Amino acid sequence: MTPIVRPVTVPSFWNDTGKSGVAAWIFSTDHKRIGLLYLYSVLAFFLVGMTLGGLLRIELMAPGRTIVGPQTYNALFTVHGVVMIFLFIIPAFPGAFGNMVMPIQIGARDVAFPRLNLLSWWLYVLGATIIIVSLFTGDGPPDTGWTFYLPFSERTGTNVSLAVFGVFIVGFSSILTGINFVTTIHQLRAEGMSWGRLPLFVWSLYATAWVQILATPILGITLVLIIAERLLGTGLFDPGRGGDPLMYQHLFWIYSHPAVYIMILPAMGAITEIIPVFSRKPIFGYKMIAFSSIAIASAGSLVWGHHMFTSGMSDRAILIFSFLTFVVAIPSAIKVFNWVSTLYKGSISLEAPMLFALSFILLFSIGGLTGLILGAAATNIHVHDTHFVVGHFHYVMFGGAGFAFFGAMHYWLPKFYGRRYAEKPALAAWVLMFIGFNITYFSMMLLGVKGMPRRYYDYLPEFAPLNLVSTVGSWILISGVILLLINLFRGLWKGEPIGNNPWGGATLEWTIPSPPPTENFDADPVVTHGPYDFRKTGMP
Amino acid sequence: MTGPHHQDHAGAKLGMWLFLATEVILFGGLFLLYAVYLARYPHEFATAGREMHLVFGTVNTVILITSSLLAAMAVTAIQRDESKTAVRCLGGTVFCGAFFLCNKYFEWSAEIGHGIYPNSSRLATGSPGESVFFSLYYLTLGLHGLHVLIGTALLAVVAVRVQQRTIHASNYALLENSALYWHLVDLIWIFIFPLYYLLL
Ligand code: HEM
Ligand SMILES: [Cu+2]
Fold first, then answer.
1. Report field, pTM of the whole predicted structure over 0.90
2. A 147-206 residues inside an 8 A Cβ radius of B
3. Residue A202 belongs to a domain with what CATH number?
């Protein structure tokens, strides 16, 4: 069996060590191979999550029971959420593109701790396996929602403990990636790669890595506490025994709001690489973009309470969390303004990566602005726990991080395969996705404003028309995704070979062969210009 | 920068410090709960706190501080290339770790014997604040105990490797990092001891 054939015949990390069996991949410490392992794993889980999401939408196509009953529906949205959050979008950017691209962009031969890097992937696989096992053993898959709110998740008979343990392991993997990246970026920058010359993707990963390090342990202890509640009956969140469920929500969101930045910051970083390259213009406001990544990461750790406005916090706490939520919007908006200013008077070429980047700006802005509706205490009360929330976070996580991930796949994967995809089908896939996406989720937001709650398999008849529209939208969206993946991977295996620098980028990954050799650089690079200094790339 | 070796060492140390930060935050969650529930149930916490065995707590504090000293001495010894001293110090640390865990065993046995453990019928019928106190107590000290166990095992492995000379004066990052880990275990105890044994 040769599951991994080499895409191009020039010597590269696919073949230059002479090792290409399965073991040479799953035990490899090469950051590029580990990055690809992550890529394929997260994509597999994305497809699982997408299937579950499609099933959710089919159930909601018409009022009453369509394909599944309430209990199955609860399990479906729980597993959909857990898979998409913990197994797809959190590990996606750092694991796949962080690993593949970041060391090259800073001029290093690998990350600081290559073996730890491999361990991270293995822990991810172990955690994912445990989560999958939890679905088919015990008394049925968890039905708590991905938030595992107590006291329900203590009382439900479903297999919550095992699933939570799996998430714990995945969290540990995320921490190790964060530690590895901070150390790498501090220690392994090439000569001349000063902090002011770091590509902004690296800056965003740096900020993300800090969030991974500082926030994930709180998730860890929270998950341990869930398991203790269930197995030992500690009652720390059980009002009947002196505990307070609100404390669970605090702990959970202290991690899970910053987790949103683990998802979105590197996505913003990727966009920041794509936009100047396809506008043939240096990025506008380098310093502000780098700074805003750090600002988002730090201010973002103080806003978790906006998930709990209706949970019974004091009015003063609500006011403060609401205010801080508005404050985080500022650095996010700084980024948007900088991207738009970069586009201004650029010579824009609308190729696939750029289309995803541009749609990222739009969809993320919609997600961010609807986030402010949720962040304002007064309006939050009306749309809390409705489909408005579901629409909002899909705009951020899917329209934002997800679209950026697809853009990054079109931008960077040709580098690592040495071949590229066909442009026309990629455009068609983008059109389908963009249209399908907006139909699906904008309808959800409208439904939420009308009062349709989230996490119910059934609804009042007056919500039927928009739900049907949303479900049809999800079919368009899903067909776009399928077309995108088929075209992309077909092209990567069989498409036209590309040179070192197909897009005319000025960062270091475009100076080395496609695909890169195992050691990345023949000689340690010496950096003499900034990452967006296109005059120096020798391109027309 | 003085060559790749120096850089590796600096990298390993930075990585370890970051890891220790995550450990502090992990325990931070439990201390946060302690703070909130203490504010809510000051009297119940005080009553419950009087049931703690101060002797066990004090002895264990002395043991851990001694062991941390020994771990630090092991690092100094290896820097001076005195492997024998390093092994002896590490042995002392491992002994202290094991001693600590033995004490913990007797302490917990006594408490469980008195019907004090999460979800016990005694706590279920008592005041809610007390039940919260003891749940937190078992969780925090249990998690800490687990760290003691891991640290002890780690230092034992390191001692063997010093003995085998795979760790020596020009390659002792593992020893140094294990000692750092041990200091962290100690540090967390320095918070646990007053909060659970002394203040209430
Ligand atoms: C393929 C397209 C997708 C479809 C059709 C879809 C559909 C849905 C639907 C209908 C719900 C709401 C269930 C309810 O509250 O009744 C939902 C929830 C959710 N989705 Fe998606 N989704 C998709 C992709 C994604 C992606 C890419 C992410 C994240 C990166 C994501 C994350 C979530 C989360 C976290 C929830 C909340 C689960 C919970 O309530 O516990 N989804 N999805
Ligand atoms: Cu939030």
1. yes
2. 175, 178-180, 182-183, 186-188
3. 1.20.210.10
